[in-house]
Amino acid sequence: MKKEKNDKANICIIGAGYVGLVSGACLAEIGHRVVCVDSDPKKIAMLKKGVMPIYEDGLQSVVKKNVKAGRLFFTNAIKDGMHHDGRRAEAIFIAVGTPPRDDGSADLSAIEKVAEEIARNMSDYTVIVEKSTVPVETCEWIYKTVTRHNKKHIPFDVASNPEFLREGTAVRDFLKPDRVVLGCPSRQCEHVMRKIYKAMKGAPLLVTDVKSAELIKHASNSFLSTKISFINAVAQVCEKTGADVEMVAKGMGMDKRIGMSFLKAGIGFGGFCFPKDLEAFYWLSRRKGYNFELLKTVKDINEQAKLWMVKQVQDELWNLEGKTVAMLGLAFKPETDDMRFAPSIDIAAEFKRLGANVRGYDPVSQENAKSVIKNIYFAKDAYDCVAGADCACLITEWAEFGRLNMKKVLAHLKHPILIDGRNLYNPAKMRELGFTYKSVGRH
Ligand code: UDX
Q: What is the pLDDT of residues 172-231, one digit of tens each?
């Protein structure tokens, strides 16, 4: 085995999805030698060519730079990732998918398979790091699984190191985190984990027990979802009373105990984390004997927030049968091509259920949208999207929609109706231009 300089670690990351790929690239960026493993041969072939399987700002350049520097590698086989080019990985990060099941629980079977294979290939003390979002006690299950398949009794620990990165700013979030949570079961494990993150200058480390670390992730995401649903509920009261939700949010947020972030009212949260984590946390709490009703209400408010859009359109157009609705933006938020759990999916389905024709356009997620939203017209650009439509609905606040020539939009529409689900436009300006304009919690 080749000797490495002490302050850099040999790391293997299993799963080159969002979390795994960004984590791998960024751990290489701070100087470690990282091998990313993924069972999908097409994905690995793309990555080897420098082509990113996801749209994420800054990711490609970090990947290319570190591949060139000989710190970042890709392979299909876990065994190869754990013993790459004669170097043994001292830390193995698990970042495989944990998709939701129908009952809201997380499907952890991919983690179990990976744990078995790690167990079969360990040759010396190894830290297995759980990075996928998982319910509390998953590390315990990984520990039991590895123990069962670890026929040579190689020493190991299972740590929890939850990831908090946001899509669109994932590279920055990883390299400049508010905190790094390290759930470590032993001093030896803590030593390895601290060594890995020491290279990330200035990152505040919080070392905890394993279960607390696991819970921090679910509790954080559920709390942020709660903030969004709270402000969306406040927006409803604003609409009924004549108050302005943006002013209310500002006034609330200036209190440092509350903070400004995640108080932007709109048509609800989507994406692969919030809806899934909320469900999984609710499900887990119930299984453990606590009925976390608040989380269910947060979800219900989010469902209503999506339907707000449909109700506004009905209030303007009455019957939707045969009418045409233009959806500007389809991704769950700007700066991502991710369509998973995007509010646009449910909104488009509801428009269609009510008999409307739907036209949609998204600057980046259009291709991904085609596989999840069926039977709508995908437009060439925003103007094509609104052409001949009875009304326009702003679904995702992409910067390019803020720069549209609104006079041209008005001219393309059949009726001058604009429903703004993300409070992107200025109400007074839109009315001045001649739009019948509605936004969330504003007048
Ligand atoms: C989130 C968490 O922020 C991140 O820490 C975790 O690791 C993964 O989940 P992400 O899903 O990328 O990240 O998106 P985020 O920027 O947090 O937004 C989530 C959703 O909430 C989006 O649909 C967004 O439009 C919505 N949102 C966010 C609001 O409606 N209002 C807000 O004030 C903030």
A: 999 999 999 999 999 999 999 999 999 898 899 999 999 999 999 999 999 999 999 999
Q: Whose CA is nearest to atom 21 of ligand 1?
A: 269
DSSP characters over 111-154: HHHHHHHHHHH--S-EEEEE-S---TTHHHHHHHHHHHH-TT--
**Fold of the domain built from segment(s) 10-208:** Rossmann fold (3.40.50)
Q: Kindly report, residue by residue over 230-288, the tens digit of the pLDDT.
A: 999 999 999 999 999 999 999 999 999 999 999 999 999 999 899 989 998 999 999 99
Integer angstrom CA distances of residue 299 from 10, 103, 304: 41, 14, 9
240, 244, 248, 253: CA torsion to nearest 10: 130
**Which pLDDT tens digit goes with each residue over 287-304?**
999 999 999 999 999 999
pTM recorded for the entire structure: 0.93
The full set of domain ranges for the chain reads: 10-208, 220-439
Protein residue with its CA nearest to atom 28 in ligand 1 = 262
d(CA 341, ligand 1 centre) in Å: 12
**C-alpha span between 389 and 405 (Å, rounded):** 17
Domains 10-208 and 220-439 share a fold: yes
Question: Which residue's CA lies nearest to atom 16 of ligand 1?
Answer: 166
Report the CATH number of the 220-439 domain: 3.40.50.720
Task: Check pocket membership of 72 for ligand 1, CB cut-off 6 A.
Answer: no
Q: What are phi and psi of 219, to 5 degrees?
A: -65, -40
Ligand 1 centre from 302 Cα, in Å?
13
Residues 175/176/177/180 CA torsion (nearest 10 deg): 60
- CA nearest ligand 1 atom 14, residue: 166
| CA 438 from centre of chain | 28
Q: Is 333 in the pocket of ligand 1 (CB under 6 A)?
A: yes
Instruction: Kindly give the distance from the C-alpha atom of residue 421 to the centroid of ligand 1, in angstroms, as a whole number.
Output: 16
Selecting among 12, 26, 273, 393, the annotated active-site residue is: 273
Q: Quick check: 274 and 100 in contact, CB under 8 A?
A: no
207: its two tokens: 């070392």
Contact between 269 and 275 under an 8 Å Cβ cutoff? The reply is yes
- Catalytic: 26? no
- Give the pLDDT confidence of 323-353 residue by residue, as tens digits: 999 999 999 999 899 999 999 999 999 999 9
| pLDDT (0 to 100) of residue 305 | 98
For residue 95, report the distance from its CA to the centre of ligand 1, in Å: 20
Ligand 1 close to Cβ of residue 422 (< 6 A): no
Q: What is the mean pLDDT of residues 404-421?
A: 98
Is the pLDDT confidence value at 421 over 80?
yes
